[in-house]
Amino acid sequence: MSMRRRPAPPGSRVRPQSPVWEHPLVSGCPPGDTPTEAGIAALGRVFAVFDRQDSGCVSYGIQDAGRRLFVKRATTPAAAHGLRRAAHLHRTVSHPALAPFHGEMALPGGTIALVFDWLPGEILYHPAGREALPRHHPDSPHARFRARPTEETLAALDTLYDLHRVVAAAGFIAVDLYDGCLLYDFERAALHVIDLDEYRTGPFANHTDRLPGSTRFMAPEEFTRGARIDQATTVFTLGRCARVLLEEIPDPLAAVIDRATRPDRADRHATVAEFVAAWDAGRLR
User: For residue 253, what are the CA distances in angstroms to 68, 89, 132, 149?
Assistant: First the structure.
């Protein structure tokens, strides 16, 4: 089995703040204005609606002038707060694994919508969709991803980890990262990461009894009130991504994943950069 490491995706970097209203379709709504929801439809023809969400958001696929957009609208104050967090991250970080971000629209009631490029692919797990197949069903995106050649799934994890190396360098901590955030284009073998509404600047203290997330991907401190949440927490989740998504774990990477997912945070890689360096070394063996 080849363990050759793919080169890091081009264009991975932390970028300076960009204007919120930079997209030509969004720029007609200057900051401070509060267009009605009809303003979203005015961006183009709505060809898809995603309203079976548990996040307090409704999303739309919009066709306009030969291009497709993805618009995510908050319907509650809490969801709007999450979209503002996501907008801050997307204005700060540039990476090929993120959907190109075009800006945000102010909506009545203090809520907002974010505008991205539409990306092809399938979400690896969709717990809120009534028609969604369970992970273990052979026709589910999750099972089909695990059944791909090991080198292909490893390359997708390479992309996931390189993204989080950049995200961590910009001062963000992954929260609520799980396979429902992974959009995979099976035809092109391309991974994108979406729905980063819960990512936060850190380190920070866990002021709740449980942070948002899928239990199988979460570190112990995410269930502990007052615990420190930092890059070692992100490392645990990244290690769990490999554990959950790989059908076969190559021997050189098994020790890396084992260290990343240790319950005692002091026994893990201390930073995402340290974890990614160990992963890359294992990929070369």
Answer: 38, 30, 31, 16
pLDDT of residue 42: 72
Nearest residue to 247 (alpha-carbon basis) of 173, 176, 154, 167: 154
- pLDDT tens for 247-276 read 999 999 999 999 999 999 999 999 999 999
What's residue 155's pLDDT? Answer: 98
Please give the full DSSP string across 229-272, using - where no structure is assigned: ESHHHHHHHHHHHHHHH-SS--HHHHHHHHHHT-SSGGGS-SSH
Reported residue count of the chain is 285
Domains of the chain: 13-117 (3.30.200.20), 122-284 (1.10.510.10)
**Distance between CA atoms of residues 89 and 84, nearest Å:** 9
Whole-prediction pTM: 0.86
Helix axes 272-284, 150-169, angle to 10 degrees: 150
Report phi then psi at 158, rounded to 5.
-55, -45
pLDDT in tens, 161-193: 999 999 999 999 999 999 999 999 999 999 999
